[in-house]
Amino acid sequence: MRDKIRVLVIEAEPGVLMMIVRLLTQVGCDVEAAWDGQIGMEKARAEDFDLITLEVDLPGTGGFEVCRQLKENSRSFDTPVIFVSWHSSLEYQQQGLEFGAVDYITKPFEPTDFISRIVSHAEAKTLEGVTT
To answer: Which end of the chain has fewer CB atoms surrounding its CB within 10 Å, N or C?
Structure first.
């Protein structure tokens, strides 16, 4: 059994991408990164992740479309997706959840809250496969 949470971070802004990767790495996550939607989808189709963070505004294929495609793919359909975006309107948050995301975090975020939400959703996915 793996002891590290595997996270795919799909984020277009280099500074934000580096910060998220650093935060997750510091708490022991195994992190892969993609800077656009197409690359993110390719990684999600090729590897198993415990969780995917996803920006709404991505070059090429946007975040909502990426989420829709991830939820239609047999490898990633049950992987929790959390949107992390500057868009803070209720409309964007509802749309993200309608596309299959489990959570929506607005930027800027508080690092401790961000980490606890990521870990909580990833661990919930891991526990789904455990039977007693």
So the answer is: C
